[in-house]
Amino acid sequence: MQPFKKQIKINQNPYTFTLLLALLTLLAAPLAAQEAQPRVVEVTLQSPHVGPQRVVYILPPGYDQADAPWPALIAFAGKGEAVRGNRAGAWGWVEVYGLLPALQALHERRVERAAFAAPGAAAWAEAYDDALQAAPYRGLVVICPYPTPRAAERERYERFILDEVIPASQERFNLRRDPAGWGVDGISLGGALALSLGFGHPERFGAIGAQQAAIGEGRLLGLLDRGGAAAPLAGRRINLLTSAHDPFRTNVHALADGLRKRGVAPRLLTVPGHHDKVFVRSFGAVELLLFHDRALRGEDGPLPQPPSPPR
Hints:
311 residues; alpha/beta; Rossmann fold; 8-stranded mixed beta sheet; globular
């Protein structure tokens, strides 16, 4: 007698297999999309220097799955948000400046083309796309404290950032402990704050940036004095971004020239656009993330240079 054998019929209909595969893909898509989204966390620090302060953290996609500590970037918003209060200043990059869609697009190795709608900006969008195809954006943690607009409390505010925000962030989140893994940047007023903090304490940062930094002639001289010690600044990656119709463009260029005379070689970029929200939602958000992602990882991935004019 032949032993009993259970036979299992496998439906080999290709249409049935395709339908099952599509169904599984649809079921998995929401979970995959959830895992691929950045996460925003707000923390309130009780500061002995400047009182209670909101700090907003943008954690990149894959943050929880990474074993290695993440590089971190302190990013200051501009005066328009700062004067509306502590919450508006801390949330500026998320709620007003379009950082989240810019970040999501970078992880997809592209930029948001709709954001680059200003005259002359389309060629730059192509240049960013090419740079991302050559070397992907890998991600960092963005930390957004309130950017004080009051000059009288800037010294106390810098102590708050250095002595409280950085240590508290390292304790709460999986962040690098070495200064080479930390950057500072900002837009307009926030760009001036970032330069003042970075030039005054270069030993605490591996990269320093500023976008359309609101520096008048008096503040420019002060920044040059703070950045005059070439030795500590020479080893830092510095990014100075301005635009064709930025009212601070002349002073930003003068700052770059002054740094070069002191043996420091910043990256100076002048792009199309005005000193407005259109700029910060396009060039501002992309440069903030991409420059520091490359710099804080010590990588030489390409960064866009001025595109060739169309023929």
